[in-house]
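ugh ok so i messed up the first submission bc i forgot one of the chains. this is the corrected input, ALL of the components this time, i swear. 518 residues overall. if the numbers dont match what u have on ur side tell me asap before i send this to the collaborators (the ones from the other lab, u know who)
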Amino acid sequence: MIDRLLIKLRPWWFPVIALALFEAYARTVGKSSDAIAPPSAALRGFASALSDGSLLSATAFTLGSAALGLLLAAALGIAAGMALGLSPRAARLSFLSIEVFRPIPSVALIPLAMLVFGFGLRMEFSIVAFACFWPMLLLSQAAVQQVEPRLLEVSRVLGLSPLQRANKIILPAIIPRLFVALRLGVAVALVVAVTVEIAANPHGMGYAMMIAQQSLNPGLMLAWLMWISVVGFVINYGALRLERAVAKAMGQAG
Amino acid sequence: MTFAMNTGAARTKIDWARSLFGANFLLLVIIFLWWAVSTAGWVSRVFLPSPQATWASLVEGVTDGDLLAFTWATVSRMLLGWALASLLGVALGAVIGLSSTARAYMQPTLEFIRPLPASALLPLAISIFGLSPAMVLSVVAFGAMWPVLLATVHGFASVPAQLQEVARCLQLSRMAYAFKIGLPNAMPDIFAGMRLSLTVSLIVSVVGEMIASQPGLGQAILLAARSFRASELFAGIVLLGLIGFASSALLAVFEKRLLKWQKS
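and heres the new structure output, hopefully the right one now
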């Protein structure tokens, strides 16, 4: 009984001890520091952000623009990926163009998006969409190429039109793989959204954290850092669960 | 038989040449469209400079040295941060991956931190180190360390049972086990992690240059956008794309060569 409890507790020792050490350090050596604050001050900062509503609005902005960008990227990426996966000729024609545009780091587009859209939602979700488009495109292309060839033969025998073939044969066959791509996209979207806010866009969680740092409020800054990692963890975990549930429902183990 | 094989080889060569031509053709079409759209003035020149103007800015920046110096600053920041990240990641990952006890205590925390955007550490680093090159480098190294660290832990933890038995029979010391069995087994994972971490290094370097005003392409393109010099902005984006392309291509070649022994 006790043994089992100890095993259950094992993952918690490391973070608890690290936080306790940090608390002790910040209260003694770093007492007069403007740069760091003990975790207890971060908790107070968290409570204040929660009560004045900034926590909710900033989180909603970041998650909303990440989701919007991801949706756009998924729609375009899956459509293009299916086209490239079905037509080897299209894939051959476009591979060089893809290889030229894909390595552009998404953050390089921050100044351009600033020029075109100004600050705000559109700038952020367009960069998120650019970053998520490439993995969605390549993974859905690979998914289509791995569709069981006999399914394609069936569609040929049935004389399905290309649109029917895409809707009735290909799409259901690649759905589990699409959710794998979507999970990767979720991770990318969240990272890019926060990065855009930290670098330029004056909205959302990343900006709230920058402002807390600039107004020399390390407690609030740490609160945002912790909150961003909690949100990231929960959303990534949720995406993983969704991917597994879909795989299970579609009759694929693992 | 030989004849058939010859024509087969010839045919793939022709196919390959044709596809290369086709691939170039589409890229040329895209550049032509860019030229047409920007020259016809369908999109404001403020956002979309013509390809010629971008090329002129690129050539000017490279020949008078400004852009070249910025590129070098960004590349060296990226490579240094990446090297630090790889060293730290492999060392820490090996220590954690070798011991099942350490994994039980630390892996959940590592997995919890994994989704945290590296750039979210910039404000913390600014308040600790100030707006300095060391600050940017530390965030690049820390952020890029994560993919290598987790991949190394996985690689060291997934040594096949037979190999572990071999090590026990040979009575290998811990050190010998780490270098002779653990590390070779983890190599493919480590390379996958390092490839990801090179991308992270470039991104964090650029963001760090933007917010800490360190010389480099990140700062250069931000200033170009703020003063509406679109052709310089595009030249910077082209250079960043080239850096991304060249670094991942070089790493792929390197990886293929180093992991050749695994194919057999």
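quick check: Chain A touches chain B through 57 residues (CB under 8 Å). that seems consistent at least. Chain A has a mean pLDDT of 90.
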